[in-house]
Amino acid sequence: MKRTYLSGLIVASALIASPVFAADDLCEVNMQKLNDAKTTSMQLGDPAKSQYDDAYKAAMAAHAAKDEKACISHSTDAMNILMDAQKSKG
Questions:
Q1: Where is the signal peptide, in residue numbers (predicted)?
Q2: Which residue range(s) make up the domain with 24?
């Protein structure tokens, strides 16, 4: 069930990444998806967890600084780390 939810979360975020949405909306949506993923009990190994935490913190800092381009870049990196972790688990 958790895998299905997280997989759906990642697919939904990929669909939202269309150019129809403004950059600030994409940043906000990505941050919400990451917050949702953090509240589910995601289990990452040590290297992936460290990489995820770094990307998440960078995305939060960019979001707070209103740097939409960096926010989108870092939040997308964090989502890719989650997606890669899901692929490796099965």
A1: 1-22
A2: 2-89
| Residue 11 · residue 31 · CB < 8 Å | no
> What is the spatial distance between Cα 3 and Cα 5, in angstroms, rounded to a whole number?
5
Looking at residue 22, what DSSP letter applies? -
Tokens of 72: 């989108």
Name the token pair of 47: 């290297």
Structure tokens that stand for 10 in this block: 């990642």
Higher pLDDT, 77 or 1: 77
Q: Is 88 helix (H, G, I), strand (E, B) or coil?
A: helix
Residue type, 11: V
Amino acid identity, position 51? Q
> What are the backbone angles phi and psi of residue 68, rounded to the nearest 5°?
-65, -40
pLDDT at position 6? 66
Whether residue 31 contacts residue 16, with contact meaning beta carbons closer than 8 Å, is answered with no
Quote the pLDDT of residue 1.
Answer: 54
